[in-house]
Amino acid sequence: LLHGLGGSGKTQIALTFIEEECSLFTDIFFIDASTQNTIEAGLSEIAVAKTSGRTPREALQWLRTTQEKWLLFFDNADDPKLNLNAFLPRGRHGNVLITSRNPGLSVYAGANHRVSDMEEEDAVPLLLTSAAQDDTPENQKIAGEIVKELSYLPLAIVQAGAFISRSGALESYLSLYHSNKARLLSEVPTQSHDDYAWTVYTTWHISFDRLSLTAATLLQLCSFLHHKGISEKLFSAAAAYQVKTYGPTKEEVEKTVEFLGRFKGSTGAWDSLQFMDVTNELRAYSLINYDAQTKTFSIHPLVHAWSQSILSQPATDKSCMTSIIGMQITALVPEEQDLAVILLPHIDALLPSHDVANLVVVPAFDLEYGVLYYYTGRFAQAEKLLLSALATRRTALGEDHFDTLVTMNHLATTYLHLGRWREAEGMQCIVVRKGTLMLGPDHPYVLVAAGSLAAIYTSLGRDSEALDLQVEITEKSKRILSEDDVNNVTAMGNLGVMLMNVGRLEEAEEMQLVVVEKRLKNRGGVHPDTLAAMSNLGMVYAKLGKLAKAEETQVVVLQRTRETEGEDSAGTLLAMNNLAVTYREMGRLDEAERELATVLRKRREFLGEEHPDTLSAMASLAWTYHMLGRFEEAKELGVVTVQKRRALLGDAHRDTIESMERLIKTLEKTGKL
């Protein structure tokens, strides 16, 4: 069995195999397997040709009894409703080759091969040949860009080649494609490369028209997501959503609730079997693929774009998918915050605008999307949506409602990460005070909120206040929570950081070792909380002068953060910064300078010139220049760092003092006594 997406070149591969290996077979029979009628007609022709009768049954009888090495080729057996078993001859002396979009036919096959997209080294010559273009290095480069844009799908490449051969537009094809994609992928070439009569879009339209309403809707809703990493859990978690007195109204999510209800059983619980039936229907036409290892679905990029292009109500369907994501975020518990990273590519596809001012979530799942942006380090987007969510909750619930308080807490910690520490302090003080009055001083939520306030004190350079408050929080957490409770371990980790800041390094190391052990045990090696704990331990090692241990730990943190969060996330840049500082202390100055320059460039781009994290990167790079003996560069950057830190943090902040001390040493080296 050769199975794959329509237009993936299955038939051509089969014909090439038959041509190359034809000497192995005594007879080769070709049958159009697109319908029962064409199969029966093909078998009847075999019966007539072999003078064994005139019916399909007589053809199958001849194939079963003839002791020869015949090959029976069923081409385009795509209809999943067609029972091919009725037309397969019994016996052990013949061979059957099937091409189909339906991977379900693998039940008949001793050898089962999925035909995927072409490799670039094969795709480029196919394009240039079908386009009648010379195989020059310049044309190869242009062709490489075109086949990449076409996701290496053979039929799309052949269609593009036919258009280029007619128009000569090799260099301009991509710009034409971007503005006329649907037309170009629907256009039938005058001169065909082979006998395949359908275009890319026609192939998929035929499959789409055969789908049930639920399967068609699911495919089109998924066209708003990223084409990879689509999971059943995204939909099953959303199905448990209950409409609240604030946020989207019942009418706004009515279509979404109705769609998700199609996958519920008679008890109202999610029915995975019903979801599987629908996804199997899509898989039968190769419109989606399933990865058993990751338990996720994917859609070919061209199918993904095509299925969105045929939407009859794109705004309504986008609103439905926005609601599903919002409902799924609502179902996340704190232990699943790492799933936010998995959801982010889907949200970027759904809400592609990077202009924060124009960021709008419809329906208004502002809190849900704001929290997800917070957990993935998109703090500017988080602030806008959380401000909107806070205004909604103040109006609907009042200033002193617990849900209003929760939203304020998210916004305050967002301000902390944005470097707006005084705004964060003012709001978090209100959260702690009101939470204490509402729930009592020892309530777990109040302790978490107080821990956020202690972290704000740390950022403001008020280390003694931060340590005193965190000691109190940690003692209460140990008393009222279990040893391995997430919030208890978080309190211990925060205390370790604050011990490090006041120079109690041995105590900090001991504390962070315990935290890392518990995080690895309870969260696993790639959870953001585990990586944060390992990062803190690496910083303690560096301050203790245990540089080999610091490097070993920080290399692991950087590698895992890159894999889970991406190259440009706040966590990745922090890990790069910490490792670079360790390299500097080890005397590996060139490596340190290269990494710190990258961190500074990216933080300037993503956070702005005045953000405390940008200033931290400036300070680290300035001191690296000093150690490299590049004193003029160190002075120039050091002066800017001191000026900005004095203005932002004040003269008494530990970071300002450190920058001033280092600048003094640099000025001495440049003779500015």
UniProtKB/TrEMBL annotation:
Species classification: Eukaryota, Fungi, Dikarya, Basidiomycota, Agaricomycotina
Gene Ontology terms for molecular function: ADP binding; hydrolase activity
Transmembrane domains' residue ranges: none
Pfam families: DUF7779, TPR_10, TPR_12
UniProt xrefs under SUPFAM superfamilies: P-loop containing nucleoside triphosphate hydrolases (SSF52540), TPR-like (SSF48452)
The protein, known as: P-loop containing nucleoside triphosphate hydrolase protein
Recorded coiled-coil stretches: none
Keyword Hydrolase: yes
